[in-house]
Amino acid sequence: MADRGRGFSRGRGAPGPGRGGGRPPPSSSEPNKNKREAILDLSKYVNERIRVKFTGGREVTGILKGYDQLLNLVVDEVEEVVNEPAPSHTRSLGLAVLRGPTVTLVSPVDGSEEIANPFLAQE
Amino acid sequence: MLPLSLLSAAQNKPMLVELKNGETFNGHLVNCDNFMNITLREVYQTSADGDRFWKLKECYIRGSTIKYLRVPDQLLDVVKEDQLRAREANRTTRGGPPGRGGRGAPPRGRGAPRAAPRGGGRGRGRG
Amino acid sequence: MSSLQGYVDHRVLLVLQDGRSIVGVLAGFDQKANVVLSDSKERVYSLEEGVEEIPLGLYLVKGDMIVLIGEIDDAVDSSVDLSTIRAEPIPPIRY
Predict the structure, then answer these.
(1) Which Pfam families match (chain B) (predicted)?
(2) Chains A and B touch (3+ CB pairs under 8 A)
(3) Best CATH choice for the domain C2-84 from the list 2.60.40.1930, 2.40.128.110, 3.40.50.2300, 2.30.30.100
(4) Total-model pTM
């Protein structure tokens, strides 16, 4: 198990071309309607910091190292964002596997920021 | 009209997504799948209590966590027209190559016609 | 599920698990009872003032959030002056 996980992680960590081997290419006869392909291309986030939210409300950020079709993620330098009790703080979790089925939200940290109410201005 | 047809027609359109936990996301739909998992770009995220806001370049949302999506009104007409056109195309290509025939068969499976005459017996029994 | 077919193009009332009431025209649905509502409005009930209708437009509601779908009798519904109705809002479902 451990070996598989690790080899996998490394394979996925490799940039671009490495991906082709892992998964069969989308068949040309694929109907435009059925989206069997993953709609999220995680390869563009590899070695970038991403924010991940889970069912139940937990939230972490970390550097994406590997992933699979089920959205299981291998993430390094993980920081859990602890929002409760009140003063929001973080705790370090190091290297972690995030279970895909519990992931509810994935977004890149780069280009994301907390802002003032953007809807007031529009009204 | 199927909810998923509406959703796929909403690609590149602005929409509001509310999650079951009350958080909302305003952004343009990039992609979606049959689970209603979606990816959005240029997103404004609002906390459940409505007093914190974030700007995200893009995000992926698991379909099972979604409560509802609000989409532009005009999409309804777009999808209806698409369906009419597809039905028309289906009719003219009937009896074409077997491969497509199988998929084209839906005149029967496509919901409406089937449910009306047959629904009485079967549909009610199951519901 | 096929019983929803009879509601298509009719005005329906949706009650969601979070206690919201939404009225709109049922434009479509699927096996999971995901629902498309056009020209939808949220009806906000309170004890202090009359019912407020908030226009929402075209809505896609996930089936797992829906508690109730009911057909609206337009004659009865339009004979009700919502501004005179005082009612407690429906509380959300808690687990």
Answers:
(1) LSM
(2) yes
(3) 2.30.30.100
(4) 0.78
